[in-house]
Amino acid sequence: MTIPKEGEIIQVHSYKHDGNIHRVWSETMVLKGTKNIVIGANERTLVTEADGRAWLTREPSICYFHAEHWFNIICMLREDGVYYYVNLSSPFVYDNKSLKYIDYDLDVKVFPDMSYMILDEDEYAVHKKRMNYPEVIDKILHNNIDRLLSWIKQRRGPFAPDFIEVWTQRYEFNKQVRDNQ
Q: Which sites are catalytic (predicted)?
């Protein structure tokens, strides 16, 4: 299995359960790549939706993907603090300079004070029926929501107080190295 290397620029591909592409982030810089974890960063990156619409991300983000957990975490660095957007998703796979996962609709928005909202439960219900999500997927996703909420409350992983500082510094360092090449 190939592993993305620190400083490498990759794409992030989000799919739906039926195999159709959902969204593509054109450039994410790898800050850490192992067989289980990829931490990346991007800012003002082009995102292309399945219907062809495209937009630029607004703020710098640190992205956390895990090969064993059924969620990924986007840490958006805004002037008034760090906001987190969590996608309930399959664990990632890395293939051909692209990190890939299946988006399972449910999202959790976490605010700088660590309060949170679970989003898109209605979209999940529609897609679960339309794409025939197996019952085992439903159980896995709900167990992972519980795990995620525990991480938020315990300030684990990307929610830890020093996570953003460490990875933002690594991002700035890698940008300087890249700019000086």
A: 23 (proton donor)
